What does this fold into?
Amino acid sequence: MTNHAAPARFSGNFTQQEAIPEDAIEKAIEVMRSGRLHRYNVAEPSEQSETALLEAEFAAYQNQRYALALASGGYAMQTALRAIDIKAGEPVLTNSFTLSPVPGAIDAVGGKPVLIETTSDLVIDLAHLETAAKNTGARVLMLSHMRGHIVDMDAIVSLTKKYNIKLIEDCAHTMGATFDGIKSGCHGDIACFSTQTYKHMNSGEGGFLTTNDDTLMARSIVLSGSYMLYGRHEAGPPAEAFEKIRLQTPNCSGRMDNLRAAILRPQLQALDKNCARWNERFDRIRETLEPCNTIALAQPHVKAREVSSSFQFSIPQFTDTQNEQFLAQCLERGVELKWFGANDPVAYTSRYESWKYIEAENLEQTNQVLHRLYDCRIPLTFSVDDCEQIAQIIVEVAGSTMN
It folds into this structure.
């Protein structure tokens, strides 16, 4: 009688991030011992808080004039929209393939999300975007670099200039990435970033807004809850930028505190190194998946240097039954996949039909793309060999499901 060995099972945890660096922990303890957690609470006027220092360092990293540290990436998007002065019911163009905080930010400020089709390479469809720009007269595009996939930014800049559209970049998944050598977030009028636990820097919650525009940053700083303490923003515009707006701009408090800033500053110094580590892991996964002719992968733009802290793939041939078998068998072997085609949202994975608070037309192309699209995190707690094992399990299960 032949004994068949049980198939290999992966034992890693897909939600376990790396520990906060020791120097960040030490600095956080120092902040807690001081009791000065509020960003404007300094011992003397000449002192720069941890948050102010972080803003200056992040602005320098991004090659932008100004940076504002905020409570979350979602709040950064709301602040950007308010800074541009979105009116009630005003259309705002955005990706159909994104996460719910993006349309949520538009809805929160009273705007009307206008969803744009997604291509098989998981980026916004430029032809549909131009049609929507013509038909709606929208003056803002909230461009989501969903899961780190970067569209042709030369074409986006050209299109937004042609139709006089303000460009807000949602860079929650592209911190550290570039397009044609330019940092992601530097092509538009405003960029928004996230430091939520599963992003490229981890403060639990947090975010940034960057811009080179004096007025947009002045409004953003006051909106964030600076009261009249805007002079303590070293990475902010000169005092005269605030004179016309300081009493007409509401306080919508959403500041970052010194504790989270202290946790983030050492991580910013290690960001490029960690981006390279993510890509090393993703490259091993891609090398393992590519030979499998049943698996389809998005193709990055030739000018994009993405940071792949997650990976996506599709298996268009699967029936509904095969899809369920594939997901269940991968999970049995320790590989936790998210599926963007589910009728009901699961955790953070949803598709546009789930956002019942907005009006959305049926997007057939996006439906087809998401129908069998799978998603998986790559925490840096996984080794390169771990990533190869994950990909190999996916290939094996895909093959057995197809047969």
